[in-house]
Amino acid sequence: MAIVKRNIRVGRPVLRCKLTGDNRLVVCVDLQSSCAVKVLEAQTQATLGGFKIELPPKSPFDFAIGDRAILAYNRAKGVIDLYKLDSREKARSFDIKPSHDELSAFAASDEGGHFALGDGRGAFTFWTTDNAQPRSAAKGLNPIALVKLSANGEYAAIAFENGEISIVKTANLDDQSLLKLHRSAVTALEFVSDYLISGDQEGRLALWSLKSGKLLRVYPPFGGAIRSVERAFDDRAAIVATESGELALANIERDLRPMALDTLGEALATATFDNKTELAVVVTASWNLLFFDLQADKAIEAFLSPPQDSRGPQREEAIKAIVVDDSVTMRRVIGAALKAEFPSLQVFEAGDGKAALDLLEQNPETKIMFLDWNMPTMSGEAVVERIKEAKVYPNLQIIMATTEGGQEKVMQMLRMGVAGYLVKPFRRDAIAKITSKLLERIGK
């Protein structure tokens, strides 16, 4: 368990909390008629200063904090005000009314030179703080629920109300990857090195490749909605805070179950981390600030350490295959043939299309699927359509195993991108032959 170094009772709603790169803790507190900005020395919690922003806060996205500045959304005037943390004064304002009537998402880059805005009408704008006009803009998107910028502002992640996520290059908003996984609202986004981490209302945490947009990993679900994800330990990990009170550490470099740091008795709103001191600050639903000292924790060191060469050659990860058929007998026939001919295969079974998609979501690295056509709940054709629409399983090879043997049916599925076709009843050696070809195709 992590060590709580100190607990500070704030007494008012905490809208934003961030550990900056120079070991300062910046806290935005709702005073109803204004916002109090408090700056603390992170290690000692000594007060370094503070000031007020004279506008009534309404929601957490009214404020975004960078290392050197705070951006505040003035709803009444339709502007973004920039306040310098060192001078504690308003430096300039940005008129956003031509682009947005009302914001639903607001984010700043860590270095503070960029910010991004999104609204419920599907408009997105990207700004630099030295320019009065947006640097780039897009309209006609789905309603936007959440926005996150990478540390240097090169990338933006846009979460839509339908659960989809778009990764865009801010210099060219047409250069984007659309990520489809989450079926519920995305509640947290974070850029970690070359990756994007997303968390949703159902407690699922996903890791994506920033450059390719490929889904790399789906972690075991948490017990409550994910409220915050924060990069940590020099981008080797992410700290996750949940609505159910879990504080956990996810290893980015290794496929491990997240490590529990603490389980608190109340919901967590957000977490922030300082790499230099390995200090984590967590905001609870009752407006407490909890300071966790994670330095020199041997359990964390072991969790983050790469596999040791002294363990000898690492076993190559097993290739995963999913057999989908509503017939238990047929699943066993195909599964037994696969295991007998290819012992290194890890074979999963699903009794219908919905169960198959759930299995695939939990095992996104799956390479082979044997799929029946006629099944209850969801047909094989519908499963293929969902997989192709998701665009996050590009290496998945699908073999249709079914009684639907007409030429028209065969051509239809081949046009949809399936890798092959087996018509029931088929011989055991046919399973081995087609699987061997698939393994050659994927280089195994």
How would you describe what is shown here?
Helices cover 15% and strands 43% of the residues. The chain has 444 residues and is mainly β. The chain has two domains: 3-301, YVTN repeat-like/Quinoprotein amine dehydrogenase (Methylamine Dehydrogenase, Chain H); 320-441, Rossmann fold. The protein has a five-stranded parallel beta sheet, with helices on both faces. A four-stranded antiparallel beta sheet has the order 1-28-27-26, with no helix packed on it. It has a four-stranded antiparallel beta sheet with strand order 2-3-4-5, with no helix packed on it. A hairpin with a 4-residue loop joins strand 19 and strand 20. Mean pLDDT is 88; it is low at 309-316.
Going by CATH, the architecture of the largest domain would be: 7 Propeller
- Kindly report the average pLDDT value: 88
**Count of DSSP-assigned helices:** 6
Radius of gyration: 25 Å
Strand content: 35-45%
